[in-house]
Amino acid sequence: MKNKKEMKSIKFNKYSIPYLIFLIVLGLNRRLILGFIIVVIHEFIHYLMARSLGFKGFCIEILPIGASIKLKDLDEATVREDILISISGPVGNFILAFISKVILLKYTNDVLQLFYEYNLVLGAFNLFPAFPLDGGRVLRDLLRKKFLYKKANEIALRISMILGYSLLILSTFSMFCDISNITLVLIAIFILIMSKKERERIVYVIMGYTIRKKEKLTKRGYIENKSISVYYKLNLLELLDFIDKTHYHIFTILDDNMNIIKTLGEEEIINLLKNDGNISLEELCKNEQKN
Q1: CA dist 5 to 8, 50, 58, Å?
Q2: 109/270 Cα distance (integer angstroms)
Q3: What is the pLDDT of residues 70-84, one digit of tens each?
């Protein structure tokens, strides 16, 4: 059970305000309000699932294509926990759409019809395997069953970028026939921006793993080790490719003749990156010989 100090806040992404103003100018006030309410419900479902799994504290960020709930220490979640949290939002939308449809079979109502359609669209759209949508997280989680976190994230980001560019090209061409597709263009651009930010964030996530492992060690009194032999021509950032959050990694540096030059722990790698930048292991060993 995660025992974390709870935090609560709501903030607007810097791209949200211009986009909201743009929608209001187009006269989408009523639909916009209903859509916003459904998005908040979607994120609240994520929050309820996270709370049921023991996570506390959240920040809701209002995005141009919806909203995103950021849970404290969500990066510590297991693959199963992250999938459950990610998929809960779309599943909740589908359940609400089903309930709305059942009611609509007996009672006709324009607002309820919109509520049904919006939930159906939002649930399906969030399963799109691109960041920052739920489908992007689920895709990464499924890849993590086979690859380490950094590799899984890189593959998921590559797919996200391809889908973003594909959507941008298709929606740009379709604009010549239907001006309403400007929304799809903006969504495609936002997916590309968020995918780029996610790529920049990954190094700090892995560094965070190492910091939290120290806390686990002092709390539990032990942590599982994983020993990996690496070639001395690699650099420090490349070593991060081999790090996962379940083990403490000890790297044995080997030369061309398979002789041991040096060993490095995760903590040393983080400190070296902070102080010396992304130097090669060969350069690191030469510097130490000089000193």
Answers
A1: 10, 14, 10
A2: 59
A3: 666 666 678 898 899
Rounded Cα gap, residues 201 and 13, in angstroms: 17
DSSP class of 280? B
pLDDT in tens, 129-183: 998 889 999 999 999 888 877 788 889 999 999 999 998 888 877 766 655 567 7
pTM for this model (two decimals): 0.73
Grouping H, G, I as helix, E, B as strand and the rest as coil, residue 176 is coil
List the structure tokens of 285: 């060993």
Q: What angle do CA 151, 152, 157 make, to 5 degrees?
A: 95
Beta-sheet pairing, 58-63 with 225-231: unpaired
d(CA 279, CA 271): 12
For residue 41, how far is the Cα from the chain centroid? Answer: 20
